[in-house]
Amino acid sequence: MTTLQPSAPPADLPAGSVLSVRGLRKDFTLHTIDGRVVEALHGVDLDVAPGEHVALAGTSGAGKSTLLRCVYRTYLAGGGHIWFRTAAGDLVDVAALPDATVADLRGHEIGYVSQFLKAQPRRSVLTTVASAGTARGMARDAAREAAAAALRQVGIAEHLWDMHATVLSGGQKQRVNIAAGTIAPPRLLLLDEPVSALDPANRSAVLDLIARLERTGTAVLSVFHDLDAIERLATRVVVLGGGRVLASGPPEQILRDSSLPLEVAR
Ligand SMILES: Nc1ncnc2c1ncn2[C@@H]1O[C@H](COP(=O)(O)OP(=O)(O)OP(=O)(O)O)[C@@H](O)[C@H]1O
Ligand SMILES: [Mg+2]
What cellular-component terms does GO give this entry (predicted)? Predict the structure, then answer.
């Protein structure tokens, strides 16, 4: 059993950052294959400031999704710290918080959108999106209005709003997911390939929505598999490789560096 050991934040964290990851480690023990250990992250350091969009890059298996899942606490970190500055101004270590506090942060301050919608059965599309807003503190009517606006923006036609989200197509689910993840913008938004199943027009609408969020001060940590989305949205690119940060810098510099293992669609 893992014991969570709270510790005091170091004095040298950037004052303005929403997220400061320090020495993050994560191993997986494959119990079905002789207990073999896969080392995914070996000491990752990373900061994200309000309004900043940090895109993670690196080859398949580099640990991008694992990093996002550790920050969202779907995975428990094997070592290191994940400092998150709350709206109240407290610095908390997501790697060591009790589950109840993590659940509260997820509802209010940290959003996570992957390519898969975890839709609750028998809940309509509009209710799915609106309840994400009420969970982040919006009044019920305001949440329904904001949900309608978000659904329009990502191109979900009105006749789909009272259908159950579970019956939608893959691309429709992905757009409902992004509408739910961005309504009442969280302080930190984690995106794992949020446009992978979308056609060009819908993809563009979703990228516009993400761009607008950054202007409202949301900090974004993302994984996109195409260079164009990274160039359009990211303020900084962090390249992971061998479980560590290999490079970090402005997109125009990093994406043109042929020595880096970038595996993005060009
Ligand atoms: N739940 C898990 N159990 C065992 N191993 C895992 C698990 N999740 C991730 N891994 C391993 O950790 C490593 C990093 O995987 P991760 O999914 O983070 O890569 P990624 O950079 O997101 O790759 P991709 O670009 O293909 O999505 C891989 O070797 C993967 O097999
Ligand atoms: Mg991944």
Answer: plasma membrane
